[in-house]
Amino acid sequence: MSSLSKKDKKIQEFKNKVNILIDMPNRNKNDQKQFEKSFRKFMSELDKYSDVIEECGFDSIKTLFSDEKVVNTNKFKSCIDEFYNNYEIDSKLDTVITDTSKSNVKQLSIDEILDIEDDDKKIEELIAFGNKNIQDTSYLLPLYSLYKKNNDVLKMIDVMRMFLNKESSNRIKDKYLYDIYRLIDSELEYKEYEGLVYELFKNSDEDFIKNRYLQLKFFGMYNQDDFIDESDINELFRLVYLIKNDRIDEAEDYFDVEIYKEDLSKDYVIDILSEFGDVLFKNCRYECSFNVYWLMSEFKDVKLKFYCSIVALSLNCDKPSMFYNKEPFQLFLDDFKSFERNIFVLESADPLIEIFRAFYLLKLGDTQECNKILENVYNKL
After folding, report:
1. Which of 280, 325, 327 lies closest to 305 in space, CA to CA?
2. Partner of 97 for a Cys bridge, out of 65, 89, 107, 239, CB 3.0 to 4.6 A?
3. Model pTM score
4. Would you call 156 exposed, middle or buried from its count of C-beta atoms within 10 A (0-12, 13-18, 19+)?
5. Domain ranges of the chain
6. pLDDT in tens for each of the 381 residues of the chain?
């Protein structure tokens, strides 16, 4: 297999930079601040990619420019306008519909609409733009971003029904499906989302659609299925299929870090691994649960379970010292140093301190109290 040419590598590098920006979170002001810093750096480096930008196609960068992290601030308008002018793109973001014989009212461009301060008025104008320009879909993502800003899940779903039928990358489509899924807060919203995903599943063989479909089947908030046809199960979800059918030995044999470690950014992969790790721990399969939780240990809520698995290994393994030189255990010990402030080994409401207290008591030989603390902490996580 031949390696990528220098130009192809440059194209891939540019696409990756765009995708990273699109995927950056927007949970709080610090996230937005970090995004703006990264976006400015990206825009300042565009000249370096001037010879490949056109070959990359403009869909992804238009999606970036329509992302809520960009739309919700006016800081980048001038540099975005300059980009479109430089490449003379018919971007549909700056198309103005002039007066017609039937109306003297000028149709605002997308850019002009996004400059409106009032969100309700902005939404009204975007809908009007869509009604008058049926073939133009450039208003959909800004409209979606505004509904997302207001946590209006049902309207987000309405927009996505239109957007998902248009040309766009699967990665971007999956990102918007995830946005909706994590905001669902009622059975009505869930049913609408479920209907959207099932409709897509019936009409598509794309992996990302199947993963969203199986996520609902296994982890749905209102109607997890008792029976799922094994022929519908793909490589990722086979693990959770096995454990939900009490085939834990098979699941433990099937588990392969390589299958999952590349997709840890996907929420459904975390769902699968969390379910697997919990089943293993509750069935005293501590070594395997240790490996599963270690894979996800960067996530704060999983880190506590990971530390529980370390203490459980130390408590139950015949030769726990075999794990002591591994990187995960060294990280645990580094954090454990903070326990030295609890000189009287006092009980704490902090689960992390309780895990450290269990480990400390284990080293003093009090295995019974260690086990009691560990069970109490884990059952509350």
Report:
1. 280
2. 107
3. 0.66
4. buried
5. 1-91, 297-381
6. 445 677 777 877 888 788 788 877 776 777 788 888 888 888 888 888 888 787 766 767 877 887 778 877 778 888 888 887 777 664 443 333 333 334 445 678 888 999 999 999 999 999 988 888 877 888 988 999 999 999 999 999 988 888 776 656 788 888 889 999 999 988 889 989 998 998 888 888 888 999 999 999 898 876 655 567 778 888 899 999 999 899 999 999 999 988 888 888 888 999 999 999 999 999 999 999 999 999 998 876 789 999 999 999 999 887 666 666 678 888 898 889 888 777 778 888 999 999 999 999 998 999 999 999 999 999 998
Tokens for 45?
């480096």
